[in-house]
Amino acid sequence: MKNDFPILIAEDNAVSRKLMEMNLRQAGYEVVSTVNGREAFNVFKRRFFPIILTDWGMPEMDGLELCRAIRENPTEGYVYIFLITGRDSKKDIIVGLEAGADDYLTKPFDRSELKARLKTALRILKLEKSLKEAYEKIRILSITDKLTGCYNRTYMDEYLSKEITRATRYRRPISLVMTDIDHFKRINDSYGHQAGDLILKNFVGWIKESLRNDVDWVARYGGEEFLIVLPETGFESAMSSAERLRKTVAGSVTSYEEKDIRITASFGVVGFKPSAENGTFPHESIVGEADKSLYRAKNEGRNRVRGKIFSV
Length: 312
Description:
By secondary structure, the protein is an alpha/beta fold. The protein has two domains: 7-141, Rossmann fold (3-Layer(aba) Sandwich); 153-309, Reverse transcriptase/Diguanylate cyclase domain (Alpha-Beta Plaits, 2-Layer Sandwich), CATH 3.30.70. The protein is built from ten helices and twelve strands. It has helices at residues 14-26, 37-46, 63-71, 90-99, 111-142, 153-170, 184-191, 193-209, 235-250, 284-299, and strands spanning 7-10, 31-34, 51-55, 80-85, 103-106, 174-181, 217-222, 225-231, 254-256, 259-261, 265-272, 305-309. Strand 4 (80-85), helix 4 (90-99) and strand 5 form a beta-alpha-beta unit. Helix 2 (37-46) runs parallel beside helix 3 and helix 7 (184-191) packs across helix 8 (193-209).
């Protein structure tokens, strides 16, 4: 049975190293071996290992130095380190634990003891993994709009300023699109709020289909109003994207209780390309310009795209 926690070995003795490899692979672990602490640390920098078995005495970098190096650098998760040594005095054990080791094995190690101590390590690592997963679920819930599944206003307020700051620092273009479903109150009045909720979900779905993965994002600004953030996108490209999305929305149908509901949406676009003269300013300034463009689109008859280039 394959184990999900790979092990990195640092052992200069070829016989001991091969013996550990054999026992661990038979137990279902993926194993990568190195001949000293320096090589092990270089391997670790390229790939994360949650479990490390390291000899104490090795050339170039010994086990204590490897422990300290691991603990002094940020890692993607906890690293459970076993220090393998022929030293078994209380003083030596304390020195090893203070260097960052979690447990120790005395040479020659017993196969049953190794497996038992690894089970302890796995319990701790699995607990850490489950806590991280629970935290991530809570974090996602805190920044997600419950109805539509897009980001919420909290996320927008925090991350939009970072997007603007990044664009300003590197002088890269960024565009925002404020969009609003036309006559949404009529939909709720005519078909009910459940139909309105379905429309909102579908609307966000159409928006997401138009976005670049891991680049663009959308947040619910309020009610039936949404803000689309397009990093690395100039004004003309943003206008074209908004127009394509407008046509998609106008040409799509939502089926609800044997009724086909059609909607339209209006779009306000603002493009911003920072220059050397641009200073820092609140992201609300750009959002306000997108909102003005949206108001213009709705004031001119709805179901259209209007925009402007933002300048400071």
